[in-house]
């Protein structure tokens, strides 16, 4: 056993300064890697949620859900894994996620084509008291699930429904027939 392997660790008096320096260190290769990975993963998650249709988003729009996931991860990583990600890298990831979604917001407002790509149209489930089977298949909603939504909306029978849609928020909406 050599004397080097049993030597005490470096002085603890430099702890706060070393910690601050390491937390704010900027390695541009790693920073570029964080930016590239953030863009790739955000795009991938966007496509996966788009593939899930309305049921994957709940009350949020698809890109609002992705931004929450991305920000949660970017914020959580440097809090927990001190050696893995510096604060600077986390800031870069947060800025990239927010910038991507500001860009998406801008493009949705400016381009109908981009809006059509990012946000699906509502899916028609019932028309004039008749189930639209194709709509149920597309929406991946079962009749039992649909009837549960009917009950929570105070609808006893399908004949009371003029139209029903699976909305882009993931909720099922009902337009009741006018009473004569």
Descriptive overview:
The protein has a 4-stranded antiparallel β-sheet with strand order 2-1-3-4. It contains 7 helices and 4 strands. It starts with 14 loop residues before the first helix and ends with a strand. Helices cover 56% and strands 10% of the residues. The chain is an alpha+beta fold. The model is unreliable at 1-8 (pLDDT under 50).
Write a compact overview of the structure shown:
The chain has 180 residues and is of the alpha+beta class. It has seven helices and four strands, in the order H-H-H-H-H-E-E-H-H-E-E.
- Overall 3D geometry? elongated
Strand content: 5-15%
**How much is the radius of gyration in Å?**
25 Å
Instruction: Provide the residue-averaged pLDDT.
Output: 77
Poorly predicted ranges: 1-8
Helix segment tally: 7
Number of strands: 4
Distance between the termini: 96 Å
**What fraction, in percent, of the residue positions are helical?**
55-70%
The neighbouring-strand order within the major sheet is 2-1-3-4
Largest sheet, in brief, is: 4 strands, antiparallel
Return the string of H and E elements.
Answer: HHHHHEEHHEE
What class would the helix/strand composition place it in? alpha+beta
Strands, helices and their partners?
Layout: H1 15-23, H2 28-51, H3 62-80, H4 87-110, H5 112-118, E1 123-127, E2 130-131, H6 133-139, H7 143-152, E3 161-166, E4 172-176
Antiparallel strand pairs: 1-2, 1-3, 3-4
């Amino acid at each position: 056993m050599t004397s080097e392997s049993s030597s005490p660790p470096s002085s603890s008096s430099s702890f706060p300064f070393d910690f601050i320096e390491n937390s704010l260190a900027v390695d541009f290769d790693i920073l570029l890697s964080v930016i590239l990975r953030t863009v790739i993963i955000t795009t991938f998650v966007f496509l996966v949620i788009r593939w899930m249709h309305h049921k994957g988003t709940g009350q949020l729009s698809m890109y609002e859900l992705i931004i929450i996931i991305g920000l949660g991860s970017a914020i959580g990583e440097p809090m927990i894994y001190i050696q893995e990600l510096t604060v600077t890298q986390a800031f870069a990831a947060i800025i990239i996620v927010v910038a991507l979604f500001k860009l998406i917001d801008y493009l949705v407002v400016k381009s109908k084509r981009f809006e059509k790509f990012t946000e699906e149209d509502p899916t028609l489930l019932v028309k004039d008291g008749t189930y639209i089977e194709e709509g149920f298949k597309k929406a991946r909603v079962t009749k039992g699930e649909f009837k549960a939504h009917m009950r929570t909306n105070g609808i006893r029978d399908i004949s009371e429904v003029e139209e029903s849609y699976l909305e882009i928020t993931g909720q099922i909406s009902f337009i009741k027939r006018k009473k004569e």
